[in-house]
Design goal:
globular, 169 residues, mainly beta, 4-stranded antiparallel sheet
Length: 169
Amino acid sequence: ENYKIQDDWSHANAIDVDHDGNYLVSFRSFNQIWKIDSESGDIIWRLGDNGDFNLNEEDIFYQQHAINKIDSNKYLLFDNGSSDVRMTSRALLFTIDEEEKIFKSDWSVYLPDSLFTFKQGSVYLIDNENYLFTSSVNNRIIITDNSGKILWNLLSDHSYYRVYYLPKN
């Protein structure tokens, strides 16, 4: 039997389990994060471009990756940026009030424009104060502080989609 290759219409690229056991799924092609009921499969909310929350223009994220829960209502994602709109990649730390459908941008940590990565990439909070980035198209792994100052920078022969921090202890 022949199989037809379908276009990747949504490009789901990350998943995390939220504080209530439901799923957070990143859909790169939609510039959205969806919260999906883990039992019924119903969509609880959509965050991002044309989603269920009102976002200011500076809060809109593009082609994002690596959604991760920080605590019960605080989240972090890697905003790749866009070759058409904003050629800058960043960490976007934000809070969600699910009942009132309110999005609040808490902090953004921008990578230098030279580390813009239009595809792949990730960011994770380490030691509750620094950010571990991958800039995939630049073959870089970077640690920054809260202001975006680069504390550590690795240039590799390989491109990484994600990297994780493993503490010594």
